[in-house]
Amino acid sequence: MITCFIRYEIDPLKADAFAQYARNWGEAIPRCGAELIGYFAPHEGSATTAYGLYNIENLAAYEAYRARLRNDPVGLENYEFARREQFIRREDRIFLRLASTPHGPVVRP
Q1: 1, 2, 3, 101: which is closest to 52 by C-alpha?
Q2: Which terminus of the chain has fewer CB atoms gathered within 10 Å of its CB, N or C?
Q3: Average pLDDT, stretch 7-19?
Q4: Is 20 helix (H, G, I), strand (E, B) or coil?
């Protein structure tokens, strides 16, 4: 299992548009075969940094997923929405593997 970690630089004046973009992916990403962890928008601190994270089996599965996403009606519309509204200034993605397992139980004081 790998995690796709996407870092976005967004226009702080268009944060509502990014939030709509994130909600749209919440429908399309799972339908196309990835396990969505979530999209995270600025709350405090930097008003220009946002993240998207999802798990996928491997890079071959990622390529198949991306092909399905490009043909998904919500995916297509979301790509067009981002292009039209230009709220994303920059997008970087990296693939990570979980290295800290096994985790211990959470201890509540």
Answers
A1: 3
A2: C
A3: 97
A4: helix
* Length of the chain measured in residues: 109
Helical spans, DSSP H, in 1-104: 15-31, 59-71, 73-85
Cα atoms in the 13 Å half-sphere on the side-chain side of 99: 3
User: What's the predicted TM-score (pTM) here?
Assistant: 0.88
Task: Name the one residue in this structure whose structure tokens are 């996403």.
Answer: 69
**Are 79 and 32 in contact, with CB atoms under 8 Å apart?**
no
The Cα 72–Cα 59 span in angstroms is 20
Closest listed residue to residue 78, CA positions, set 5, 19, 9: 19
Tens digit of each residue's pLDDT (9 = 90 or more) over 38-82: 999 998 888 999 999 999 999 999 999 999 999 999 999 999 999
- CA distance to 32, 42, 65, 88, per residue, from 49 (Å): 26, 6, 25, 10
Give me 49's structure tokens. Answer: 């940094």
Q: Quote the crossing angle between the two packed helices 59-71 and 73-85, to the nearest 10°.
A: 80
